[in-house]
Design a protein that fits this description.
- The chain is mostly beta strands and 87 residues long.
- 10% of the residues lie in helices and 48% in strands.
- The protein has one domain.
- A 4-stranded antiparallel β-sheet has the order 2-1-4-3.
- The longest helix is centred in the middle third of the chain and has 9 residues.
- The two termini are 27 Å apart.
Length: 87
């Protein structure tokens, strides 16, 4: 589901100069007529959020959603957090 360089559910002091709130998402048609096509990419959602503005997200939250239509399903990952440049 993801490739994390660092991940914690605890409050860990992270030192950075400033931050900007950003969002990124990745959606994919995951099945059509009961044929599984694979999941959306959490990595691509994070890469879209960070872009060239920094190198990490802090205070990051991941949202998932799924939409069913007549012939299949679309799934999405959406991330929101503060983009920073870690020293």
């Amino acid at each position: 589901m993801g490739d994390f360089t660092a991940l914690s559910s605890k409050n860990v002091p992270v030192h950075y100069d400033s931050s900007t709130v950003v969002e990124g998402s990745n959606c994919k048609v995951v099945n059509v007529l009961f044929v599984y096509l694979g999941p959306p990419s959490l990595k691509d959602a994070v890469d879209e959020a960070v872009g060239t503005r920094g190198n990490a997200l802090v205070n990051q939250v991941t949202y998932t959603s799924a939409y069913t239509f007549l012939l299949g399903t679309i799934e999405c990952f959406r991330v929101k957090g503060d983009v920073v440049t870690l020293r």
